[in-house]
Amino acid sequence: MARRTKEEAEETRQLLMKTALRLFSDQGIQTTTLAAVAREAGVTRGAIYWHFKDKADMLEALWDKIMQPMELVYEKLRGDVSGDPLLVLEQIAESFFLLAASNEDFQQVLKITMQSQSDPLLAERCQQLCREEMESLSSLMTQARDKGILRTDLSVKGASLTYYGFIEGVAGNWLNSGCDPLLVEEARPIARVLIQGLRKTPN
Fold it and tell me: Which of 57, 92, 149, 153 could form a disulfide with 52 if both were Cys (CB 3.0 to 4.6 A apart)?
C-alpha cells in the first residue's frame, strides 16, 4: 500500500511538471500561477504545494529533468579532450541541435528561456547557466588555443562568445520559424560550419 502511494505521488509530480512546462511555454511564466497549473492538471492546490514550495522550486525541478540528457552528453564528451577540443565542441553542438529537434519537452524549455529578458525569476537562472557554460567553453577553448588549433585572431573569450551565440541564434531562429524538421538532417553540417569558423586554417 505504501509503495502504491509513493508511486501515485510520483505520478502526480510528473503530471504537474508536464502541465507546468506546457503552460509556461504557451502562456509565459509570469502569467501562469501554480493554482492554474493545479487546475489544468486536475489536482488540488494543496497537492502542488506538497510537491513544490513555490514557482522557483518547480522551475528548478523542470530544468534539472529536461536538461539531463544534455548534461549526460557534456559529461561524456568532456571526459576526454586529449585529442581535439574543437571536435568535442562540434559534437556537443550537434547533440544539442538533435535533442532540440527530437524532444518536445526540450523545445518547450528553449521557448521558456527565450522569455528570460522579461521574467526576473527566469533571468537569474539563465544568467547562472550562462556563466557555467561560458566557464566550460573557456576551458575547452583554452585547450584548443594551447594546442594551436584555435584561429589566432580570436581570443578565448571571443571564441567562447561566438560558439555560445551561434548555437543560441540557430536554436532561437529555428523555434521562431516553426521547428523545421530539417534541423535533424543538417545538425552535423551546421555544427561543422560553426567549428570550421573557429579552427585555425593550415598555412
Answer: 57
